[in-house]
Amino acid sequence: MASRMRPLVLSASTAVSALGQGAAAQGEALAARRGGLRPNDFEPAVGGWIGRVAGVEDVTLPPELAAYDCRNNRLAAMALAADGFAEAVAEAREAYGAGRIALILGTSTSGITAAEEAYRQRDPESGTLPAGFDYGRTQDLASLAGYVRAALGLRGPSLVVSTACASSARAFMDAAQLIQTGICDAAVVGGADSLCRMTLQGFAALELISPTACRPCDAARSGISIGEAAGFALLERAEAPRRDGGAGPRLALLGAGASSDGYHMSSPHPRGGGRHRRHAPGAGERQLGPGCGGLGASARHRHPRQ
User: Fold this and answer.
1) What is the pTM (predicted TM-score) of this model?
2) 219, 288 Cβ separation under 8 angstroms
3) Mind listing the domains of the chain with CATH numbers?
4) What is the DSSP pairing of strand 276-278 with strand 285-287?
5) Residue pLDDT, tens place only, 61-119
6) Which of 32, 43, 226, 290 sits in a 20 to 30 Å window from 18, CA-based?
């Protein structure tokens, strides 16, 4: 599925990952060709390498938002505090009104780590989870949007997308449609995913964890490395003023498209067969070759049609 649209600009953006907090840290690491992977010290029994954000354990949410406390929302808090992003959204909120800014975010993990900890603390006889465990504001997929919406003071449409690796890309598409149809004037888009034992153990069970630092898009890769990150962007119409205090050209969303690869639940066709992607209107179709994208490697090669 592809759609044409009037250009939309990313008038402000921010991110936090294993490379650091804020756009400058991400840019410096990329320019230096420095990765953020490290040996797995989150769930050592799984092995492999992970992308762990430094300092997330030390984040404290404001008292009025303490009920949302979980690893995923702490990552979101770190991103919102960087690059003047919260201030940029406040400026847009003043211009449009809190009810005219949508919030469309992607997440796969949500606050699963909080549920894992609660399960470990359950009553040994009844199995009852701790009284302080707040499922709705931590593990539930809507938790991320609930926290960010409250932190930014937004009142517009709010949606969480969970389509695995495509979640945040889908969030951009949905937000663009809301703006194009006039339902809102701007949108905060992005997402957050955090390290959790379920994800690490799950991919390890599928034999998809690389024993060494992952080599993405390399035909010789031996699996994937699991990481965590959060990132947000403020999406507005092209005529909107710049809100990030920067200079030079701005990033723009000119169009969007979505495709489906039904070869395998966790892996594309090993030779790219049957998978075509239209990069932009009029750009023609290209077939992806070996090593392009996908989660699996070793397990896929041993059982190509499982």
Assistant:
1) 0.85
2) no
3) 2-257 (3.40.47.10), 259-306 (no CATH)
4) antiparallel
5) 999 999 999 999 999 999 999 999 999 999 999 999 999 999 999 999 999 999 999 99
6) 290
